[in-house]
Design brief:
single chain, about 70 residues, little secondary structure, about 0% helix, about 0% strand
C-alpha cells in the first residue's frame, strides 16, 4: 500500500539540547530510516592506538581549543 503525503512545515524556533553519533533529527514524514554504521581501517593499521596522554600537567587550557559562540 502506498501513502502519498503532502506537508508544509514552518518552524519558528527550534532548540536542540544535544546530538551525538547515530542521532536522527526528523522533521516531517519519512517512510523508513535504515541505520547504517561502517567501520573501516583506511590507514592499514595493525596495532591499537597508543594510550592518550594528559594535556601538559593536567591543567585545562586558558581558552577553548575550538572557538565557541557565547550563549544567547
Amino acid at each position: 500500500m502506498n501513502y502519498y503525503v503532502q506537508q508544509s512545515i514552518q518552524i519558528q524556533y527550534i532548540r536542540i539540547g544535544g546530538m551525538s553519533n547515530s542521532s536522527v533529527l526528523q522533521i516531517g514524514t519519512c517512510g523508513q530510516i535504515t541505520p547504517n554504521s561502517y567501520l573501516y581501517n583506511t590507514g592499514g593499521y595493525l596495532e591499537p592506538a597508543p594510550k592518550a596522554e594528559k594535556n601538559g600537567k593536567g591543567i585545562p587550557p586558558a581558552a577553548p581549543l575550538v572557538p565557541l559562540q557565547s550563549p544567547s
